[in-house]
Structure formats: C-alpha cells, structure tokens
Amino acid sequence: MSGCNHSDNSTLYDDTLPPITECYVGLQNGHFVLNGECWFPIMLNYKAFIDNDRVIPAPYYTGTDIREHFDTIASWGFNAVRVCLDVIGEGDSTAKFVATRRMVQQADSAGLRVMLLIRTPLDPYWQSYTKGLLRHLADLPALWAYDFMNEPLYFDPVPDRKKADAVRLVSEWRHWARTYAPHQLFTIATAEPIEVFEWDPSMLLVDFIEMHTYHPLRVQSEMWWYSHYTGKPWIVGETGLPADGHSVSYAEQAKFMCETYRYARIQGAIGYGWWEFQDFPDGVNYEAQYTGLRDNNGKRKPAANVSNLLRGMCFGVAVEADRMPPVNYHNMLAYQNLAVTGCIVDSDGRSIEGAVIRGWNTDWSVGVNTYSDSSGRFRLVTNDICTHFEISAPGYCTVKFDKRLPYPADLNLADRTREYQQIPLTGWGSKGDILPTHPKQFGAPTAVEAPMGSIALKRL
Q1: How far apart are the first and last CA of the chain?
Q2: Are strands 25-28 and 31-34 parallel, antiparallel or unpaired?
Q3: How confident is the model over 425-434, as pLDDT tens digits?
Q4: Domain 328-456 maps to which CATH number in 3.20.20.70, 1.20.1050.10, 2.60.40.1120, 1.10.600.10?
Q5: Are residues 99 and 50 in contact, defined by beta-carbon separation less than 8 angstroms?
C-alpha cells in the first residue's frame, strides 16, 4: 500500500465567508442570499472564447451575438450562467479584462448572474493574470462566483497529487479571492466522488461545492454521496442527458431535467446547472454532442422550457425513498458476476462511513466504485476480476494497492467490459421515469464473493 497523504491544517487560510453586501450574492446559513432573500441559481453552462477585446460564443453556437444568447437564456427561465472562459492563450491581459467585464455587464443587462470558469492558475503567468482579473471585476455584483478549476479528476496536470498539495493550492486561491474580489464567492468544479482520492472536497476551502454528474445511473448515487459526506453547501454545476430526438427523445431529456432537479433539491442542493446551451456536433461522443438545449441548427428543445418545467415544481416534501440511499448506490452500474467484501476503519479500528472504494481490472480498462455503509462495510460488485484498488474517505488518507483475491479458477464472467459509456441512458425507471427505481436490477445476489478484510485509513 502507498503512504498516506498528510495535511498541516495550520497552513490553511481563515475559513470565513465574504460579508453579505447589498446587490452581491452571499452565503448565509448554508444558502445563497441576495438582497436579504434566499437565491437559488438555475444555471446554464455557456462556452465562450476571447477574441481581441470581445468575449465571443463558441463557434458551434448558432449566432454570434452573445447578448442575444443571454436574452434567450433568461427567457427560458434561467437566472444564472456559468461562462466557461478557461480555454484562452497568453496575450494582452488588459484587453481580456475589458472583454470579460463587458461580457458580465451584458449578462447583467439580460437579468443573469455569472459564474466565471477561468483558466486554472497553476503557473506564474496565469497566477498573475488571475489576480489582475479578480481586481478588475471586483465591483461587478452580477459576477456572483469564480470557478478556478474544472474537474481536477480529469484535468489536473499532476498525476497522483497529494491531498495536502490540493488543499494548499485551493487555500492560496481562496486567499486571492478574499483579497482581490472580496464580494464574490469562490469554488472549484469537482467530478465524481473519486475526487476524494486527491482533491478531497471535504477538505478544500471553497465557499461551496460545485459537483458535476451525468449518466442516469450515476446522478443519484453521486448526489447522495456529496450531500451526505462533504460537509459543505453544494450545487449541481453540470448535469445533462444527451438527446438527438431519435435514440433518446427530447421528452426524455426534459423528464431527466425535472427528475434530477427534484432529487437535487430534496437532497439539499442550493443550486442547479445544466450542460449546455447548444449541441456540439463534433463532440467526442454522444454525451458530448447532444446535451444542448438547442439542437445544432439553433432550434430550441422542449427541455429549454425551464421556467415552466422547474420553477413550479413541488419538491419540498421528501418521501421515504428519498431518505434512503438510491437503489443502485452500492452497485451503480448493475454488475452481476463478482463481489469484493470488506470493511473500512480508522486507526483505532472504528468504522468509517462514506469511504469510496475503487477497483480496476487487470489491464485498467474498467473501473468500478462503491461506498462503505454506516458499519464501514462495503460490497464492490464487478463483472471482471479487480486487482488494482484505491480507497479513501473524506478527511482521511488515500491508500493504493494491488491484490489478487481468492476467486474460484472456473469463473464464467459475462459482459466483462461493461462500463457506463456502454450502458443505455434510459429504461431504468418505472412509469416512464429516467432515473433508476428497480432495486432487483442492482442487487446481484448470486455474485461470487471474495473477502478483502479490513482496510485502515489515517485521519488527516
């Protein structure tokens, strides 16, 4: 097993929130507030670039007038946009500041608040740029939050980053935000719960967690974990169901929006964001191509009727099922063949709930997750034999190891390459629902089990 990652909490900056200031979005009692009232961002993601002194739409969006796009987004019922300006090159910083300022003002005039995703400041040039940007835009109330990094799980250039280093970076960025943009909120965008191995959301000094989740089999499980184990206010920053009108209908996309919005609200989310404004026909896969609320010709899809779909929903009363983990929480992708059993404990032998257990098959082509329950026990169900493992829990060290488990030699392993990209997007719910509702699909009672024993994690 690898050594644990240790953190010296004395290096952290003061964990205080920005003051509540009129016209600016603030955080109070775990909720966003604006001018003395609770504010819930319903946010659309919008890709943009900087061309000289202008922020321009992504080239695959129909139309080149960004203000017209903002007006359209507001007319659908959104009150916020996450403008993704993280793909920019070096050059005239002042021109970029002016262009970004004008873009925020255009969004403001359309009635939208802006979360700004910036290029991650990991080297000296972008660190200096970021400080300048924060100073230049600090007086804009419509700029409600900065996102300093998108999905470190996938985009962190440093492999196997230690938790302590991630905490140090985020603490430094938080200090810049407090110093140069004292009225704006600060976050980074995290992906699936295995972020806990390096960018542990429970340890990062963000004002709120912005989590991203997609496939219908993943959404509820991942929201549940974030809502129960990270200890911070959280929003859904990105979700979406791709729909081309054929293999997945536009009606199913709209249904997914309603179901995920309701589930997020029931589990305590304080904001909800959709990816994205318009389809991207050259995306790397189906999911990347068709999540837009306009098709690639600029025609509006039914899910764009956000105001009617979401704002009138009744979601405040949870039913008993909402108080329990999702039906596929411990076997997210309905595997059936094998199971690894064990228990996660701390240094004193006490059980750890909410630990994330990840296994990979021998050639690393398929990865599988599960979580420990209230007694620290886990059952990692797979379709192929896992030999590589990584385990952590919020606030604890990360361990990695290889282990061959005592399975019989004559196993019959069907569907060994099953991964979420190969699993149908729909058909998991009853009565036309998109999210899974059938517990028997995920139970795997006949899976051949092999014991792993107890794994101890040290608290950081």
Answers
A1: 17
A2: antiparallel
A3: 999 998 889 9
A4: 2.60.40.1120
A5: yes
